[in-house]
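Limitations
The structure tokens in this dataset are predictions for the assembled complex, not deposited experimental models. Users should treat interface geometry with appropriate caution, especially where small molecules or nucleic acid strands are included. An illustrative entry is reproduced here so readers can see what is and is not provided.
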Amino acid sequence: MTLLRPILLVEDSMKDIELVLAALKKNNFANPVVVARDGVEALDYLHRRGKFAGQPVLPPIVMLLDLKMPRMDGLEVLREIKQNPILKVTPVVMLTSSREEADLVESYKLGVNAYVVKPVGFQQFVDAIRQTGIFWAVINEPPLNARA
Amino acid sequence: MDDPTEWRPAFLSTQPANRGQWRLALGTLIVSTAVFLAAAPFAQVRLAPVGAFLPIYQAALVVIELVTAVLLFGQVHILRSRALVILGCAYLFSALMAVSHALSFPGLFSPTGLFGAGPQTTAWLYFLWHGGFPLLVIAYAMLDSATDRLESRPTAAIMLGAGLVMAAVLVLNALTTVTHDALPAIMSGNRDATAKVVVATGSWLLCLAALPVLWRRRPRTVLDLWLMVVMCVWLFDIALAAVLNAGRYDLGWYAGRVYGLLAGSFVLLVLLLENGVLYATLARTHERHGKRLRILHEIDSAIVADETPEAIAGAAIQSIREVLGVPHAMIGMFDLDKDEAQVLAAADRTGAHVAPGTRFQVALLGDKQALGRGESQLIDTRELPAGSSRDAFQESGVRYYKVMPMIAGGELLGAVFVGDEQAQESDEQRTIAREIATQLSIAISQARLYQKVKRQAEEMETRVRERTAQLEVANRELEAFSYSVSHDLRAPLRHIDGFADLLRQSHGPQLGEEGARYLDIISDSVKQMGRLIDDLLTFSRMARVEMHRERVDMGVLARAVSRELPVHPPQRVVEWQIPALPEVRGDGAMLRQVWVNLLSNAVKYTSRRDRAKIEVRCREGDGELEFSVHDNGAGFDMKYADKLFGVFQRLHRSEEFEGTGVGLASVRRIVARHGGRTWAHGHLGEGAVIFFTLPLSQERR
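Predicted assembly:
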């Protein structure tokens, strides 16, 4: 059996991490979830450096990226990923509270793959995570690496 | 010509004789008289008859007098004077009579003279000639120069005059030849007969009579002066050649002819001299006019090119001084509140000048009231009160100042100062200075106006810029604020709801029925707050976002919104009546929000009706379109109609109808940004009508 590629959750709020994990669990996702607490950690994971140095890591099947984070925010992470010839194939889904038009426009300009606004109601939130997870982690088939 | 400021060249026939001319004329007269007195005793001394003398003398005389006549006729064209026509005729008469006289002179062309001349013919012609000329001069002098004006064409008048003269000469010739024998004899051979004295005295008296008439003429012009000399010399001529002498070829006869020649020459000489002077004057005037045009052009250019009064004055001042031919010129502006004048620009012959900006008392410039009326002032710098201003004036080497006021729109702006050594100024100088002052005042008042407008425009622009900057800052702050609200206020809500749900799942059984109800309330409150945040964000965005005006079909938009609105419960019957509505110009997304809020309100407040009826109407009012949404819902008390459109204002409890109290506030804000108004009508239990207007787009008006 092939190893399931992980879902990379980039989120600074512990509460949100817990809720996302709960929502994923509720929907019975089998993929492992790797949590990065800010943009720097997320890039560390992708580059296998920092606290992820030396670990055998699989490229994430999808990256759930929050916008507002300390150190390095979501848009900066997105820019770096989409400008990197190897990392740019990583599917990135914005998962954020912001419904601001400016954030949407900027994310899509930088090449985001999807933009999901976190609903306030938990049921709707679980629903959103389920649909996002099913599409990106189950239905969608991302390349393993950038070299075909 | 009627304009007194128009400069005219001086003519012999218009210019009063000056002292020098009087002296010259008097000198000529004294010499003539002295020669006459010396010659008179010897008038009868017989000299050798020189046959060639008379033809030479007559030829010269004819040429001189014809040229004189032509020159006088020439002046008629310029001056249009009847008197000059008559005087020209007098000289023409004299020339023609001289010809007749020569032709009939015995022994000159034929032994007895041509044309069947008898022995008396020549002598008679001589006296008719010498009587006719002074008669014409008297006619000339009798015409009042003040009212003398030739109404007909000059050429026609001259032709008529010349024709009459020729006819008169022919008649006189006929008289002295055809009716020769009827005339008394005044010559016996080459000697004078006694009757001659009577005839000679007659023509002599005519010459004498011309003198007082000429003397009385006003103004006594240069021409009049020399005509008097001519008449005096004619007196000597006649006296010597016809009265005092004994006959032809004696000293008196010869001397008289010389006088006649001299008399003819005076006016010609003076006329020729005048022509020379006239030419020089015209050339000078032409040059001056060219210069005047140039400087006026320079001032014009300055008006166009320069924007400040200082620049205009600076560009024009040196040229003004040159064209006026004065040592010093200055342009000053008045500050009448302080009674001060300020130098805008100054120039003098050496190029050194009073510095612009120098201030002095307006009182130094004469009568301020008179200046305001447009009267120029003459200031003698020595009469100024002692002080630095007077010293400054005198140091610039100027004795008199002429102050020419600059007035524009009835306001005394300033003055053009012309500094000179003498008090007098020519008409031309005065005219030019006045013209320049007028032009400058227009230019300067325009420049001031322009500067004022420019300053105001700049102030305005600065104010707009500052205000825009302030607004931009405020807008950015608002944006940051609402971004925070949007992001940071939602997160805790989500957490509350999320963990409440987790709590329900994990500890549901322990909480019991009461605990589950509490959790539901927490969930509902969170959702309510979520909606409130969304509505508030929309509301604030409606005020901030830039409007993109486009053509919007209100009917299509309203119908589309009505179809998309969720109806709870789904089995409810809502009867929509949305007719075709006009197109408007506005922001499509914002207007969509208007319909969403109004129609969803209508759906909401009709939820208790079995059959909900929602109708949209539109009518055209005074330059605006009035839209209205009618429903048969819960309605409201008109007492609270004003509160409907305020933020968070609700007329129903949230248990009755859910809502945030922001919807109608958003509608009012959007409509106001489109230039329209909003209001409502309703009765409790009978439904409500919400109205809004939009201005008619320009192309539809």
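Some entries come with short summary sentences. For this one: The first strand of chain B starts at residue 187 and ends at 188.
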